[in-house]
Design brief:
The structure is a single chain. The protein is α/β, with parallel strands linked by helices and about 290 residues long. About 35% of the residues lie in helices and about 20% in strands. It has helices spanning about 25-30, 50-60, 80-95, 125-140, 165-175, 180-190, 195-200, 235-250, 265-280; strands spanning about 15-20, 40, 65-70, 100-105, 105-110, 110-120, 145-150, 175-180, 210-215, 215-220, 225-230, 255. Helix 5 (about 165-175) links the parallel strand 7 and strand 8 (about 175-180). The longest helix has 18 residues, at about 125-140. The protein is globular and about 50 Å long. The two termini are about 20 Å apart. About 40% of the residues are buried.
Length: about 290
């Protein structure tokens, strides 16, 4: 089943937004700066009362919202967490975000949850498993969601297709959209030794409903240098180049600047968002997400 999205949601246009984190809440509310949209981690707002839902009630009047999940564990072999899904539905019904997304990964096994977004084997069996669970999530929410490609530092011997084929085929089979994380593509291309341009070129533009940009760091592991998706610094120059190449091909899309740890001043995030807006303004961006 394909879900077109709720009619009451404020659409997120093809502009740049920022991830709103706790360290910036007070400053953001006081200043209410000009930015295209706000994205929050869904799980942080599951509580029905208190200051966080009140914060969204306040900000939604001025900013479109995007909800980005980190805990649904779409690829796990555990039973889909109906309690978690119920909290998400309550949140989505209350705040009617323009976009709802989750990671194409697993983060729990045998009831144990890990503080990480772990990659999947790129196989037909994994596609069928994930697509079925995504359809169930969309049916429960009565709307389409987006799935995000994750960073990885090791692969599975069982994988029998490239990551981009796995991502695209899962999205097509589930009838969902793609949240394309360009930094994760760059990180994985370095770590796994594939061509980042080939990855981006293989993702159909009509499936891409949102783009993420973030910073990464370099780490030495034995005799090998890895890139790590740390979200703690500005977007790197080669990631900006990949982003511009992508937008030139598919047209402008809602673009989110992620910065989760070692938070800089709010103005630094806003500056990164303006840089993304500069790219978007060089290309058509008259379609809502």
């Amino acid at each position: 089943m394909t879900h077109p999205g709720p009619s009451k949601a404020v659409p997120i246009l093809a502009c740049a937004g920022i991830g709103l984190r706790a360290g910036h809440h007070e400053t953001f509310v006081a200043r209410r700066p000009a930015v295209g949209f706000l994205e929050v981690h869904s799980e942080n707002f599951f509580a029905p009362g208190g200051p966080l839902p009140a914060l969204l009630d306040d900000l939604r009047a001025d900013y479109p919202l995007s909800f980005h999940g980190v805990g649904l564990s779409l690829g796990s072999t555990d039973v889909l967490d109906e309690r978690h899904l119920g909290h998400l539905k309550t949140l989505v019904d209350r705040f009617e975000p323009g976009l709802v997304s989750e990671h194409l990964c697993w983060s729990s096994l045998d009831g144990v949850h890990y503080n990480d977004l772990l990659p999947l084997p790129f196989t037909e069996q994994a596609i069928a498993h994930c697509a079925d669970r995504i359809v169930r999530v969309q049916d429960a929410l009565d709307r389409q969601i987006l799935i995000e490609n994750v960073s990885a530092y090791a692969g599975f011997a069982e994988s029998d297709m490239p990551e981009w084929v796995f991502l695209v085929e899962t999205a097509r089979r589930a009838g969902c959209g793609i949240l394309l994380d360009v930094n994760n593509v760059f990180v994985n291309a370095h770590n796994a030794g594939f061509d980042a341009d080939a990855y981006l070129d293989a993702v159909p533009g009509e499936l891409v409903r949102e783009v993420h940009l973030a910073g990464h760091t370099r780490a030495q592991h034995a005799d090998r240098e890895l890139l790590v998706d740390t979200h703690n610094r500005p977007v790197a120059a080669p990631v900006w180049a990949l982003y511009e190449r992508l937008i030139r091909r598919i047209g402008a899309r809602p673009t989110l600047i992620e910065w989760d740890v070692d938070l800089p001043p709010l103005d630094t995030l806003l500056q990164e968002a303006r840089r993304a807006d500069d790219v978007l303004e060089r290309h058509p961006h008259d379609r809502a997400a």
